[in-house]
Amino acid sequence: MKKLAELYAGKAKTVYTTNDPDQLILHFRNDTSAFDGEKIAQLDRKGMVNNRFNAFMMQQLEAAGIPTHFDKILSDEESLVKNLEMLPIECVVRNISTGSLVRRLGVEDGLDLEPPIFEFFLKNDELHDPMINDYHIITFNWASQPEIERMKDLTFRINDILKKLFFDAGLLLVDYKLEFGRYQGELLLGDEFTPDGCRLWDAKTREKLDKDRFRQGLGGVVEAYEEVGRRLGVELPSSKA
Ligand code: ATP
Ligand code: TYD
Fold first, then answer.
1. Domain match, 74 and 98 both
2. Structural domain of residue 95, as residue ranges?
3. Which is nearest to 20 in space by CA: 101, 111, 81, 88?
4. Ligand 2 contact via 129 beta carbon (within 6 Å)
């Protein structure tokens, strides 16, 4: 597999083309951003930790029957994935109320949400990722009706799988964001599943073990990601090395 040109540099990952047009390389960088890129930092080891964390999660999901773009890890910070035509949509699921839901609706923080809440956001940094619904998606042709149904179906199946996976590791999966893309007539889960794109709380203490540590300046960001990885059984080299 030959890495060719840089296709896209996002806020946390860089995407490269390869000699196979159906495959891309995702490079997980140490860059971290929050509040639409207003707060940025370099966090030592984060790229490596997220690359391995993501590989573990994608493999768990594949094993449970979810089609994903993940192929294999190539190096500490790089993975090989299928080249998807990404939908410009973010699927958010909330199992516990917090974050923008609480700000938007004035509901109490930390409530169990039953049934879980599903929200679509438009992937558009300039517009600050506004919330959208099925009608916007159809009218503006961001995805088809069957694709909307498929995203919802896959997202709720993923929720059942991941809630249990994290709960068994003493963690609450509070909320998270997924992205899907088209590949040979099918929708696959793309992008990443790491503590950068979800909220995870310790089940007993409700301590935050995700990117909120960075957003809120709590420190120990990568250490928290590693703690989550350790509880799940993700293979990570010792941080004391
Ligand atoms: P955000 O942080 O809001 O997700 P970003 O573009 O800054 O936006 P990065 O994670 O830095 O995010 O960039 C990775 C980009 O690669 C994203 O735009 C994502 O949609 C895209 N991407 C992820 N997986 C694939 C794939 N398999 N094929 C094509 N593009 C992909
Ligand atoms: P949300 O509460 O809407 O955002 P905020 O961080 O502004 O309070 O986010 C819900 C979850 O989805 C949270 O775990 C972060 C994740 N998410 C992303 O990672 N990227 C996004 O662009 C969006 C909209 C959400």
1. no
2. 85-223
3. 81
4. yes
